Amino acid sequence: MAGNRVLSRRSGPLTRFGETRMLSEYVSAQYPGAEAFFRVRLGPLTTLADSRGLTDEERAMLGSFRRWADVVVVTPRELIVIEGKMRAKPDALGQLRLYRGLLLQTPELARFLDRPVALELVVAIEDPAVSRIAGEFGVRVRIYKPSWLAEWLAEVRPRERRSSQDLESAPPGP
């Protein structure tokens, strides 16, 4: 369309891998010595109503279509499902609630299901509205500001440098 600006997203190394790096640092700092699984596929191995004719290998291949959580941490007291966002987003709360249900159907994690399940949203930039709703859903919000956050902010579009809450309360532009 004529006259519309096309915004391109920068894709430097921090932009592409920011959440992964942040979560790796966070888990190492907050849960030293705990068993941590990154990019964990969740849910049952089969999504087909009838998989009786499939081999074990074919069933395992079906598992690649499952949803995945950023991190699952196993501590002696609990099983923690973690979703990481550089900037808090409300959709992360829905993801975590979905992951809780799928976790209970994940055969690879069955040996840990004797522990209570906790949900954690780890963010570098908090959104107070998301944090409030997270509390209502029983999701713990953890703010983790990595040492390289300023570099990451320099790589993203200016509107992504603040939380949505900040943007909603900002005065209208020219």
Structural features, described:
The structure is a single chain. This protein is α/β, with parallel strands linked by helices and 174 residues long. Helix content is 35%, strand content 22%. It has a five-stranded mixed sheet with strand order 1-2-3-4-5, with helices on both faces. Strand 2 (67-74) and strand 3 form a beta hairpin. The relative contact order is 0.17.
Write out key terms for the chains shown.
174 residues; alpha/beta; Trna Endonuclease, Chain: A, domain 1; 5-stranded mixed beta sheet; globular; disordered C terminus
Summarize the structure.
By secondary structure, the chain is an alpha/beta fold.
- Estimate the mean pLDDT confidence: 81
- H-E string: HEHEEHEHEHH
What is the radius of gyration computed over CA atoms, rounded to a whole number of angstroms?
19 Å
Widest beta sheet: strand line-up: 1-2-3-4-5
Give the second-level CATH assignment, the architecture: 3-Layer(aba) Sandwich
Low-confidence stretches: 1-12, 170-174
**Judging from the principal axes of the Cα atoms, what is the shape?**
globular
Tally of separate domains: 1
Largest sheet: 5 strands, mixed
* DSSP strand content: 15-25%
Derived structural class: alpha/beta
Span between termini? 23 Å
Helix content: 25-40%
